[in-house]
Amino acid sequence: MTQVIKPSKLINIYWILGFLVISYGIFALNGYGNDDDTYRMLNTWKTLISEGRYVPSRFQGNLIPELTIGLASEIGGFYLANFISVVLSVSSLFIFYALLLRITTSLIAVLSVLAIASNPFWIIASTTSMDYIYGVFFFILGLFILIKEKPRWAGFLFAAAVSSRLTYAPMVAIAFLLYFPYTQGKLKLRNSLIQGFLVFLVASGVFYLPVFFASGMSLSFLAIGPDASGGFVGIIARFVYKNIYFWGLPAFVFLIIFFIQDRSIYQKIVTNPFQKVRVEKLLFHGALWCIIYNEIMFFRLPHEYAYLLPLLFSVTYLMATSDRVKKTRYLSLLIGLQLLYGLIFNLDVLQTYQKDPVAKTIHSDSAKIHVSIKEGVLIRELNWRSTYQAYQLSEFNKKWHP
C-alpha cells in the first residue's frame, strides 16, 4: 500500500517549502511574539538555569517546548527560537504532503499544503516562540510513522506531542484505536502496536515527571484554566465567533457551503471504519474525530485561536479527498481568501473592548455587534509587536536583567 514518492513529484513541493521558509523567516524577525505564555516559558528556563529548580510555565508545563525555546533563546535569542518554529512548521507541512500523496494527486497535495500555510494563525504560530507548532509537528510525524508500520517509534513521537500540548493525548488514543483493526491478520504488527502504545504511556509519564514533582506530587497540573467571562452566554459567543474568525468570515462561509454540498462526505461518515480497512478510510475517520474532539475542547475553553490549529489539517484533508470535481479551484479559493484575511482586510462583525490599553493587554473584556473592515490579522499582529510585545519583553527584562 505504500506509494513511493518519486523525485519528479517532489520538485514542486521543494520550491514551495523553500518559499515558505524564506517568507516565514522574514516574518519571524519581529521578536518573540505577542503571546503571554512565551515569556512564561522563558521564565521557566531562566529559573531552571539560575536557581536549579523547575517551575512550570503553566498548569501542564509543556516540557519539550519550554526547554527547547529556553535553550534556543539562551544561544541565539528570539532569532533561533523562532527559526525552530519555522522549521517545525514547514516540516509538518511536508509530512502532510507525503501523507496526501498516498491518496491524491501531487497538485491537490500541494494546494492542500498551501491552504494550511496561508492561514494567518498558522503563520503566527509558525514564526513565534510558542508551543503550538511543537505539538502539531510531533503528532503528524508520529501519525506518518504509524502508517509506515513503526508503532514503537510512533508511540515515542506521540508522547513528545503530548509533552508539547497535553490536549493531544485523546487524539493519540483515537489514532491507536482506529489503527488497531488495520493489524487484523498481522500478528507481528499488532504486537508492535501494543508495544507502541505502552511506549507512549511510559514516555508520556517520564515527560510529565518534572511537572508532577513541581505540583507537590499531585495531579493538580491536569486542571484547565477557567474562561467564564460573560458566563455561559459569553462562552457560546466566543466559541462561535472564534470558530468563524479562525478562518475569516468569507472563508468560513465558503467552507460551510462546500461541505453542505459535498454529499460524498455524508456517505463516508456512515461507513463502518473497521470494515474493509484501508489507510485512506482510517485517515478520513481520524480527521472527522479530530474535528469533533477539538471543537469539544474549544467549547470548554474558547480562548486562543491557535487551539484550533489541528482543524486546519482535518478540514483540508476532507477537502483534498472529497469526491467533488474542481477541487483545485476550491482549494485555491480557500488559499486566496485566507491571504486576504491575513494581509489585506478583515470583515469583522464585532467591536471589542478592553479595560487596559494594548500596551498591557490584547485580550478583550467585552464586545458589541458592529460591522467594519479592519486591517488583516497579520498586519494587526505586527502592529501589536511595538506595544504589547514591547511591554512583555520589558517586564521579562526587569526581572532577569535589572
From TrEMBL:
Residue intervals passing through the bilayer: 12-32, 78-100, 107-125, 131-147, 154-180, 192-212, 219-238, 244-261, 282-299, 330-347
Superkingdom of the source species: Bacteria
Keywords (A to Z) from UniProt: Membrane, Transmembrane, Transmembrane helix
KW Membrane (keyword) present: yes
Name this protein carries in UniProt: Glycosyltransferase RgtA/B/C/D-like domain-containing protein
Lineage of source species: Bacteria, Bacillati, Cyanobacteriota, Cyanophyceae, Leptolyngbyales
